[in-house]
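Q: Hi! First time doing this. I have a protein sequence and I read that you can turn it into a structure. Is that right? Here it is:
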Amino acid sequence: GTVAGARCGSGGACAAGLTCSPPSPGVCSAAAVTDCDPLGGTTRCSAGQACLASSSVRGRCGAQGVETEPNDTAALSAARAVSTPSAFVGALAYGDVDCVPVVVPAGGNLVAFVSDGNGRCPVTSGALALDLYDTDGVTVRLTTTQNGPGLCAHMDGGRRSVFPSAGGLVAGTYTVCARGVQSSTVRTANVASYVLTVAATP
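A: Yes, that's right. Below is the predicted 3D structure, encoded as structure tokens:
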């Protein structure tokens, strides 16, 4: 890659985290941080980025990774805990579950979204849910579904009156899992692509 300040374009690429501006020819510089709307999708991120939510109504565009299997339970995903706002692109086969462990500081809040990464929901029938597991990886503290965006789900521990089980947490590693809703009234088929974003806020 090319370092900051170096010329780019016309075959020259910039290092990760840098953009070529103007595109060709140009100079490598730090990419601008863009605000986004994780719930309403009115301000969306560019391709390859997701809205990393810090609350139900505020986020910053950032890079997205790819989910790593096996991650169907807290135990299977425990070795891949994150401590910074993160986004993971994944797919959900019928009955599949994808989990991400999150390190939360004392008194912290957990914010999570399952969506297309930009304030929209990738499913048009069925629904997606989020489960929050306690530090033991077994006890379910909270389940949310169809509370937006669209048929997807989110939780925001900063909104204690709505999500009390996701806020004011004891320090530790909690696990957020995304899944398709399967019930007597809701059937969610395979989801080809979705984005799970997680963050721990003070």
